[in-house]
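The protein record passed on for reference:
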Amino acid sequence: MLARGLVLLLALALSGCAGMNIPGLGFPDPEERQVLELIAYAQRAAVMSAEQQRGAYGADNQAFDRDHSPYNRVRLALLLATPGASVRDDARAAGLLEPIAARDERASPLSLLASLVHAQIAEREREQKRAAQLREQATQLREQIDAQSAEREREQKRAAQLREQATQLREQVDAQTAEREREQKRAEELRQQIEALKNIERGIIERGRQGRRP
């Protein structure tokens, strides 16, 4: 039951909900009171300005340097794990929480809180990793699409060049064919002229023979 209650309180605190009224709940156990104080602190940290967060980090870091107690460890980790915080450092927050994170639900309230925050950080890291993978896949897909588009453009350019070459070749063939036809026509005309000259020559020779007959 305590674990479920911590989940709800921590979710409200880290989402910046301002409606929590921690004083007056009256938890008798000192460590439970510490947990509630830490959750309230996480709530305040979520709405602090960047300058306030840096000031809180300096104070919390000094307190942790003086005393590595679970309370100081979780307090500093909560600040470092606050979404959007100017001092956010998920890796260090996870490292602070790891030694005291609960391994089962029978652990102390502080250990349970540390476990919940540690799990939240781990989930955030997984989501960031998945997001990074999706971005990488999207980038690779865009690169593939761009490469395919560039290849299509090159193929279209090559096809246009081939069509141009084919057109030029057809024009050359047509020109050569026309030239051969003209040559053949000239050769036929020359043959006809030669044949006509031969006929004239034969006629002259024939008349000469007829003129010499007695």
Remarks:
- Residues 109-212 form the longest helix (104 residues).
- DSSP finds six helices and no strands in the chain.
- The CA atoms of residues 80 and 200 lie 120 Å apart.
